[in-house]
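Late entry, written up from scratch paper. The run itself happened at the end of the previous shift, but nothing got recorded in the book at the time, so transcribing now.
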Amino acid sequence: RRSLTLVDGLGVIVGIMIGSGIFASAGTALDSAGSGAAALTAWAAAGGLVGLASCCYCELLCVRILGFRLW
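Output as recorded:
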């Protein structure tokens, strides 16, 4: 029997939102950047910033789970 859990459904929705945003904004990014290399550099920099932001959220979650204790 096939079924989707809440986590599966959220994963599908997040994947659709991210995927549609990448394909919808690629042309605009290329037009604004002026060259392919500049556009790829901007996408990589944005990806790095998103990675840092996710690390901050992970740290905040760990601090909350541990009851505001460092170790």
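The chain has a mean pLDDT of 83.
(Scratch paper discarded after transcription.)
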